[in-house]
Design goal:
Elements: H1 2-12, H2 15-24, H3 34-77, H4 96-115, H5 136-147
């Protein structure tokens, strides 16, 4: 009967009292009953999980706020450019010699501009057209890349 009363007293002790006992003397854990040890273990585990979930919720909130701020910041810089209307080009028949001379002049001017020299210092001897076997999406990507540089 006395043993039963001692176990009821042990269960009647609150968690705060158990923690105060352990804070005063850490070796007192050996004197506690198994029910008291289980209650302390469950409290510590619950406290650890609560802190972990609180930090995770805080991180989730901080990331969502920062992503919305950055998304809004990025949208302010992007302004849609007006679409320019392209007029159809009428094909004008020219002789091959005129086209070749124009092509040579354009290529010579481009080479002179890239070398920072006069066009009179450059002699074009031969021009060979190289076939482009890249797919249409690659060509479109290059064109868009060049257009965004200006």
């Amino acid at each position: 009967m006395k043993m039963y009363m001692l176990s009821n007293l042990a269960l009647a002790r609150g968690l705060n009292e158990l923690l105060e006992i352990l804070k005063a003397d850490p070796q007192a854990i050996h004197t506690l009953s198994s029910n008291e040890k289980v209650s302390i273990v469950l409290f510590v585990a619950g406290l650890g999980m609560a802190v972990t979930f609180a930090v995770l919720i805080f991180l989730w909130f901080a990331i969502s706020v920062l992503s919305s701020v950055l998304r809004n910041f990025g949208e302010e810089k992007k302004k849609p450019q007006p679409v320019k209307k392209v007029e159809p080009v009428v094909a004008v028949e020219e002789t091959e010699e005129e086209e070749d001379e124009e092509l040579v002049a354009v290529i010579a001017a481009a080479v002179a501009a890239s070398l920072n020299t006069s066009i009179h210092n450059i002699v074009v001897k031969n021009i060979v057209r190289v076939n482009d076997h890249s797919p249409s999406w690659a060509k479109t990507g290059r064109i868009e890349q060049m257009n965004t540089r200006f």
